[in-house]
Specification:
17 strands
Length: 479
């Protein structure tokens, strides 16, 4: 072929190639693509997708489907591959006391009232200040991120410090301003606690997309009926949820019956507290009438199986709650009564406890346990429209688990493995509101070395002080 014809042919081929390229659809730019060999959506419309992926833009899931289709349609600044990984919603810890990581192990193997009145309350008055709360919350947030928890409900003191830590570390939280009628680390009594709560909510309500300020009355046995009424009135005035310990121990049941002639739940109903959106923690000892009240009021229950076991509070009747139509989620409670913040452990123990309590192996199956840690937990805390499932339009709070560990081999049922096999060490990626908080098990938003060093130093000072004067010697400081 003459040289001129050859050059002409090559030019024509180049033009055809460019035309073909220009006719290819342009991929849409997104922030992240996250894949999974298994995508567990927790959405009943499409529960599990094999070899799938999601696209994330501006903190939301904008697409979900087969991984090849997502990759062909979207181009991301960062892509988390899905090979040997499970992609699922982040876990929801519906009840806890984050800063109590600093008190982990300080008073073990005691019933709840002895633990509280003789050890925890006195220790908190002596040692808990804003600096401890900040450090303890950082430690807890690091532990929760590592374990795949992306949203938590907290009840403790100095709530502004908690909120600031949550903002910095990237998690999502409902943060209670604690109200208790005794001297506490940030108030002299319930009256001051209520005033502090009002001010805290005013500073944070609607101010940050990942922070929801709420009210945290401790319990019916640490507040008077009048004070509980005031909490309910304030919650309605400010339009905020309430988180409260309810029917946790036999002590609470017996004391409320003797003092008020009522169950704790019936008392809260009588006082108008349940007219609000309430997150009831524990609910170990409800009557059938109590369950009807909770169901009618749409109260969400935070079931804390490990803490309930450790303090011998009992086994909550979760099956009866679910049968009554209640939303039931899972919580770790604080690290001083658990003693870790592993939500996978709560799934496993929560399911197993119901099986042994009912002597029925089909009670609380793996799928329900997983729902309690994700979609049901989100409903309990009032965020079911935003988090807890992987679906287009939801907030991008997602995690990946690594399937390469021996305990995932063989894998017949991914749902069963997530509830009964997985633990916090398997989490490899954490994304909240579209921001990457952990990549390849490396925490990106918390200086873990600094936090652990400071926490150990603080714990040593507390231990040395307790050797000189045990916590039980300071009971009168809470009065």
């Amino acid at each position: 072929m003459p040289r001129g014809l050859l050059l002409g042919a090559l030019s024509l081929l180049a033009l055809l190639a460019r035309a073909e390229q220009s006719s290819e659809p342009q991929r849409t730019a997104v922030d992240l693509i996250v894949g999974g060999e298994w995508v567990v959506t927790m959405d009943p419309a499409q529960p599990v997708l094999e070899n799938g992926a999601i696209a994330i833009q501006d903190g939301h899931i904008v697409a979900l489907g087969p991984a090849p289709e997502i990759s062909a349609t979207y181009e991301a600044r960062e892509h988390f591959a899905g090979e040997h990984r499970v992609l699922m919603p982040g876990l929801v810890n519906a009840h806890g006391h984050a800063a109590m990581t600093i008190l982990r192990g300080i008073a073990d193997d005691r019933d709840v009232i002895t633990w509280l009145q003789d050890y925890i309350f006195p220790a908190e008055v002596r040692f808990v200040d804003e600096a401890l709360v900040r450090l303890g919350t950082e430690l807890a947030c690091a532990e929760m991120i590592r374990g795949g928890t992306t949203t938590f409900v907290d009840m403790y003191y100095h709530p502004d410090a908690i909120a600031e830590v949550v903002v910095d570390c990237g998690l999502r939280a409902l943060i209670s301003a604690t109200v208790i009628d005794q001297r506490s680390p940030d108030a002299a009594d319930a009256e001051e606690g209520l005033a502090n709560a009002r001010a805290f909510i005013g500073r944070w309500q609607g101010k940050h997309p990942r922070i929801t300020p709420i009210l945290g009355p401790h319990s019916v046995y640490t507040l008077s009926p009048k004070q509980l009424e005031q909490v309910g009135e304030l919650a309605r005035e400010l339009d905020v949820p309430i988180s409260i310990h309810v029917a946790e121990s036999r002590f609470e049941i017996d004391t409320t019956a003797a003092t008020h002639g009522s169950t704790p739940i019936a008392l809260l109903e009588k006082l108008g507290v349940l007219q609000n959106h309430v997150i009831a923690a524990h609910v170990v000892h409800p009557t059938n009438d109590d369950l009807e009240i909770l169901s009618a009021r749409g109260v969400g229950v935070a079931h804390c199986p490990t803490s309930n076991m450790k303090i011998s509070s009992g086994i909550a009747p979760v099956i009866a709650m679910l049968d009554a139509g209640l939303h039931v989620g899972l919580g770790t409670d604080g690290a001083a009564s658990n003693n870790d913040l592993d939500m996978f452990e709560e799934m496993r123990l929560g399911a197993f406890l119901q099986k042994v309590a009912t002597m029925e192996p089909t009670a609380l199956p793996a799928s329900t346990a997983l729902e309690m840690a994700t979609s049901r937990g989100a409903q309990v805390i009032g965020l079911g429209d935003e988090i807890g499932t992987l679906r287009v339009g939801a907030r991008a709070d997602v995690i990946q688990l690594d399937l390469s560990d021996l305990h995932f081999t063989p894998l017949y049922d991914v749902i069963s493995h997530l509830a009964y096999v997985a633990d916090e060490q398997d989490v490899i990626t954490v994304v909240v509101d579209g921001e990457v908080l952990m990549r390849e098990r490396e925490l990106l938003t918390i200086d873990v070395a600094r936090v652990t060093t400071q926490a150990r130093a603080l714990a040593k000072r507390i231990a040395d002080d307790l050797k000189r004067r045990p916590a039980t010697d300071a009971r009168n400081e809470t009065e």
